[in-house]
Design goal:
The protein folds into two domains: 149 residues, Orthogonal Bundle (Ribonuclease iii, N-terminal Endonuclease Domain, Chain A); 75 residues, Double Stranded RNA Binding Domain, CATH 3.30.160. Helix content is 54%, strand content 11%. It is built from nine helices and five strands; from the N terminus they run ββααααααααβββα. The protein has a three-stranded antiparallel sheet with strand order 3-4-5, covered by helices on one side. The protein has a two-stranded antiparallel sheet with strand order 1-2.
Length: 250
Amino acid sequence: MASQQPPRAIAGITFQDYTLLQRALTHSSYLNEHPEFTAEDNERLEFLGDAVISLITAEYLYHRFPEFREGELTNLRAAIVRRETLASFAQAIHLDEHLLLGRGEEESGGRTRPATLCNAFEAFIGALYLDQGYEVTARFLTPLIQGATQQLLTRALSKDVRSQLQELTQARFQITPRYKTIAEFGPDHAKQFVVEAYVGPICAGRGQGHSKQAAAKQAAAQALKHLQDIHRLEDLTPLPPWDATSEKEA
């Protein structure tokens, strides 16, 4: 059973101003049921913590991956600061055990709800920043970022390029890529296929292979490369039409 008052130290961090920690762990539902409670809820600290986490993450990635382009850094940061990742950080430092929740929120699973945990972690980081400054906050947060980054990169290496393209287009444009076989030629024992990858109405990649699957994979890889630094779909230049008289398309 979670305690009704947060401890004075969490994850090895002892707060100089205990009220900041108390506020960071106070959900609005608790105040609704306890009007006598003098602390604020954690929503304002959540706002501040969100910005601090984003900055520390960006700084870490900027120095850790000097070879990454802006679009790659943006995508990786987005994956790290997403709700599910921050919720896992909250559980890793046991914030879930110390949240002050209203009875209804508690009974409906608020202590394990990703949105609630994410918000609490952001508020905790905001409180830590106010209490002990940027350097201490960065030293605390960086190991969590490092672990999440390694997991994301390992997962990406094992992921099919078509899945990577779908994740990118859905996150950035809310669009699922489509594949269209536009040509097949050659003898039956050595047939070649040409497949185009479309993002919305735009042909973003084209591939050729001995099977439709191989051609689609190549098309997805080309589209992924073209989209890496594009943030608005209207900035994407469509590929020129395939020359049906040539069998040398990539």
